[in-house]
Each structure stands twice: as structure tokens, then as C-alpha cells.
Amino acid sequence: MSFPALPARPGLGLKPQHYAQIIADQPDLGFFEVHAENYMGEGGPPHRYLEAICENYPLSLHGVGLSIGGQGPLDRDHLERLRALNDRYQPASFSEHLAWSSHDEGYLNDLLPVPYTPQTLDRVVAHVDQVQQALGRPMLLENPSTYVLFAQSTIDEVDFLDAIATRTGCGLLLDVNNVMVSAVNHRLDPVAYIDRFPMHHVGEIHLAGYDETTDDAGDRLLIDAHGSRVRPDVFALYRHTIARTGPLPTLIEWDNDVPAFDVLMDEVRLVDAVLDAAPAQRLAS
Amino acid sequence: MTDEAQFVAALTDPTRAVPAGLVSPRGTTDAKRFAVYRNNVHVSLTAALAARFPVTRMVVGDDFFAGMARLHVGQTKPTTPVLLHYGDSFADFIAGFPPASELPYLPDLARLEAAWSDSYNAADIGGLSPTGLAAMAPETLADLSLALAPAARLISSAYPVGSIWSAHQQVPFVPPKQSGTEHVLLTRPQADVRLTIIPPAAAALLRALADGLTLGAAADAVFATHPDFDPGSALVGLAGLGAFAAPQQELSR
Predict the structure, then answer these.
(1) How sure is the predictor about B3, in pLDDT bands with cuts at 50, 70 and 90?
(2) How many CB pairs under 8 A join A and B?
(3) How would you classify residue B120: left for phi > 0, otherwise alpha for psi between -120 and 50, otherwise beta?
(4) pLDDT in tens, chain A (285 residues)
(5) Distance, in angstroms, between A203 CA and closest chain B CA?
(6) Which residue, among A15, A103, A148, A223, would best test binding to B if mutated, counting the most B CBs under 10 Å from its CB?
(7) Residue B251: is it exposed, middle or buried by C-beta count within 10 angstroms (0-12/13-18/19+)?
């Protein structure tokens, strides 16, 4: 399987407040992405709009709640819901996160961090295998943004993701904002992270805005907030990435304080400029 | 406890210490870093409630809503990752939340909003139209069992929650009446959810039908409390609003 299956163009997260404008204006975009869980109602306007929009755009289906990094077994009911949604919409891409979000207490609605050890690697590999088998298609797995490190971790994050992709045949979703957030938070070099990343597995890129605070020591702590424009340092890192890879499908994520559609299209034009300037071929990785 | 269980325990109880082994790059535990996860859980689930209960939020104001939602989130986590259904017990929580007791209609308003989103997301199934109803042989109607459409919801309240909800959809805002019973029917006759305040007798008919009574038995039950009830016009009106699913025999034809 080769990635990507989405067009190597800018895409946007689809938000209900923009449904009507998108259908009326047919903006020039490579694809739309939706959170799978938002389309798990049985019917009604969300499906009606999504079906209409899928007539004109490729779809990226992005799960946020499967808890692939969790210690327990995958939620079979949720996996079945994802299978049904994949069957219904036949998206160009399906992706999920290297994170966990459910426990005995319930669903926590956050992407919680996974320690990187040989044991957790085996577990995530088994979960990705199970998802790909259930869906009958390869998936993309997204690198996380994290705020703490696990003292027990023994494997570098890039190596951990590379091993998952190599062992399962899944692709990777490279979230460049997450790279910046984690690198700043853990005092790592974001460019070195990108330069080591196994780009031949990458099927999609995510960009978003971060917020900023400080930790107990008063040092910078970035928060993956999805509520603002992509920050200049993340855009520079994205430019560096695309110079290395050639054009890749690139999503602008903006999930909180969602602005007018025109503001999102401004971000799209910035992405377009980077993709237009990219080398046509992927460099060897 | 497993690593995950320790993480969750500290995540959901801010009085607990950050679990050992979660560190900053300096190798020390860092409360502000862990607090980002705590905050994400609370803020994102509070936002999920705000999305499902927008009028409740408008009525009480952002700050009051945030405080009320935060307490509910602390007590009741979603049972699935499908947050469309999160908040099913929020109205009951509000009913037992003393600071909200100044607004006695608030629990029913929240019930109406939960029902509105259920209707919005309900299955697309062909309804029984007034034409379909008229085409049925009159002698079969009394024995007919009519199921409610998947998108139909009936909220009966001692307060005018339908009027209150509707007033908050208007610009400029016109203060709604504050007292009086209302029976509020939500349906999706075409694409979108429609809110209709229906007469008490029509609400009684819907309830009797939803309980599984045949049309004849349901109409008799309504007559007992509403002697002026006109079942024909009530039925046509309700069918026109999309209250009924097409009968099984209609679907199988």
C-alpha cells in the first residue's frame, strides 16, 4: 500500500456552521476531513450535508475516540461504528491517534499519552492490526502532542511510530503542530524530529494553532489548542517538511472558536503557496 | 493500580498528586504540565454540553453554565466516544442543582434541548404523510398501531419551555411568557427539526400511541379526559408534522 490516498493539496476540517456556504460556493480545496464520532448519529442533517459534500470532495475520516494506545482491548462497539461509517462513506483516508482516551470510568475526550516501551509497542501494533482488519483497509496513525514524559519510556517517539508503520503496514499522519508542541515542551529540536521522521509512511499532514503557557519551572509550555491560525514557527517547520517530501495532503485543523470560512481559506492559501513551491518529487527518505 | 488507572485517578481528582513517573524534561514531576490534561478533559466535555444545550446556556449565562456543567462532568463521564449523546442525564442533574432552582423551568428546557439533538440525529425513515393516512381504508384505522417516527420527541412541561426555546432563536430577543403548561413536539418533517406546541389532547393521543395502544383504543383514552377531542383532525395534523413512522405494511409493499 502506498500513501497518500488523498490529493496532495490543502484540506479543511468540515464544521456544521460552514455546510451551507461550502455547498453554495464549492471552494477550491483538495479534501474535507471530519471527526468520525460526529457522524455516528443514525441520520439527519449531518449525514445529508456530508453526503452532498462528498459528491464534490474526497473525504478524510479522522477518528478521535478509539483509544488505540489504551491498555485494555479496543471497544468493539466503537470499532463496529467506525466500520459502518467507513463502509458508508468509503473515505479516501482513515486516521486515528497514538493516544488513549477511555478507561473504566468512561470516555475522557482527551488524547492521553502512551509510554514508549517494547510492551506498549506490541500492544499498539496489535490494536492497529485489529483496526485495519476490521475496516478492511490501511489506516494512518497520528503522532501525539504531549505535556509530560514517561520515566519508563525506552524508545524514541519517531522510532516507535516507524516500528508501528513497518510492522502493521499502516501509514502515518504527521501533525507538524504536534511536533512543535512536543519538541518545545520536551526541549527537543523540532527540525531534527522532522529530519528523522520516516516520510515514506506519511499519508497526510496536519497543521493547527497552539496556545502557550508555562510549566512549574516557568519554562514555555505549548498546548495543542486548535483554536487559532497556524503559528509562524509551525509554518516554517511545515515548509521545511514539504521541501523534503514534496507535496502532501495538508489539513488545517481549527476545532475551537471556529472562525468564518474565509479565515480558513486564508490559511489554505498559505498552504497552497508552500505546496506550489515544493519539489515535484519526494526526496529519498 | 495499572499505570492507566493511576493516570485516570489523578486526572479526575485534582486533589491527587501527579502519578510518579510522569516527568518534565528535567526529570521532575510537574503539576502544571499534568494540569493541561485535567483541563482538557473538563473543558472539552463542558464544551460538549454547551454544544448540546445552547439555550440553557443562554438563559443562565456562560459563567453559571460553565460552573454547572463542570460539576456534572465531574460526576458523570461519557460512556462512549460518541458525544452526540453526552448529557442525557444533564436535565436530571440540573433538577437537583440548588443554585438553578430559581429557574424552575430549567430542567425541562434542558430535556427539550437533549430531545432536540436526538431528533436532529435520528434515523432518516419515511414517515406517514396525511395523504398516506387518507389512503388507508377507514374500517382498518381503529385497529391500527402507529409508531412514532424516529425523529419525533414529545416534551410535556408544567412550564412554557417551547415558547422559551423559540424566543431564544429570535433576533431581536422577545421575552417569552414564563408560566403555563406546554406540550412540545419535535419532528423532522423534511430536512430539519421543527418545534411545534401542540394541544393537550394531541399530546395525550401521541402518548397513548407511543405506549402501543391501537388508534381506536388511544382515541377512546383521550376522549375520557378531553370530551371535545377530534381524532381525525388531530391525526392529520400530527401526520403532517411527521410525527408517525410509515406503518410496517406500507414499508414492505
Answers:
(1) confident
(2) 150
(3) alpha
(4) 467 699 999 999 999 999 999 999 999 999 999 999 999 999 999 999 999 999 999 999 999 999 999 999 999 999 999 999 999 999 999 999 999 999 988 999 999 999 999 999 999 999 999 999 999 999 999 999 999 999 999 999 999 999 999 999 999 999 999 999 999 999 999 999 999 999 999 999 999 999 999 999 999 999 999 999 999 999 999 999 999 999 999 999 999 999 999 999 999 999 999 999 988 766 544
(5) 25
(6) A148
(7) exposed
Q: Mind listing the pLDDT tens digit for each residue in B183-203?
A: 999 999 988 999 999 999 999
- Show me where the domains of chain A are located: 10-204
Same domain membership, residue B252 and residue B129:
yes
Superfamily covering domain A10-204: Divalent-metal-dependent TIM barrel enzymes (3.20.20.150)
Task: Please state, in angstroms and rounded to a whole number, the distance separating the CA atoms of residues A267 and A247.
Answer: 16
Distance to chain B for A120, nearest Cα, Å = 12
- What is the C-alpha to C-alpha distance for residues A143 and A145, in angstroms, rounded to an integer? 7
Answer yes or no: do B8 and A108 touch at CB < 8 A.
Answer: yes
Within a domain: B110: no
Q: Of B70, B103, B136, which residue constitutes the final position of a domain? A: B103
Q: Flag whether residue B42 sits within 8 Å of chain A, measured between CB atoms.
A: no
Distance, in Å, from the CA atom of B85 to the CA atom of B70, rounded to the nearest integer, reads 17
Number of domains in chain B: 2
What pLDDT, on the 0 to 100 scale, is given for residue B121? Answer: 97
Residue B251, pLDDT score: 45
User: CB–CB of A148 and B188 under 8 A?
Assistant: no
Instruction: Please name the member of B25, B28, B191 whose beta carbon is closest to the beta carbon of A187.
Output: B25
Residue B109 lies in a domain: no
Q: Which residues of B touch A216 (CB under 8 A)?
A: 24, 28, 30-33
Query: Per the structure block, which three cell numbers stand in for B129?
Result: 404523510
Query: Which domain range does residue B35 map to?
Result: 1-103
Q: SS3 letters for B64-133?
A: HHHHHHHHHHHHCCCCCCCHHHCCCCHHHHHHCCHHHCCCCCHHHHHHHHHHHHHHHCCCCCCECCHHHH
Please tell me whether residue A184 adopts helix, strand or coil conformation. helix
One domain for residues B82 and B11: yes
Min CA distance, B101 vs chain A (Å)? Answer: 29
Cβ of residue A49 closer than 8 Å to a chain B Cβ? no
Query: Are B79 and B39 in a shared domain?
Result: yes
Is some CB atom of chain B closer than 8 A to the CB atom of A218? no
Instruction: Report if residue B64 sits inside a domain.
Output: yes
Given a cut of 60, whether residue B221 has pLDDT beyond it is yes
User: CB–CB of B150 and A42 under 8 A?
Assistant: yes
Q: How many angstroms separate the CA atoms of B26 and B185, rounded?
A: 59
Give the lowest-confidence range in B1-5, B28-32, B200-204. B1-5
Give yes or no for B17 touching A (CB within 8 A).
Answer: no
Mean pLDDT confidence for B204-209? 97
B98 & B156 share domain: no
Q: Is residue B187 part of a domain?
A: yes
Nearest CA of chain A to the CA of B37: how many Å? Answer: 7
Q: Are B163 and B176 in contact (CB under 8 A)?
A: yes
pLDDT of B174 > 90? The answer is no
- Residues from chain B that touch A221, judged by Cβ atoms under 8 A, are 32-33, 36
What length is written for chain A? 285
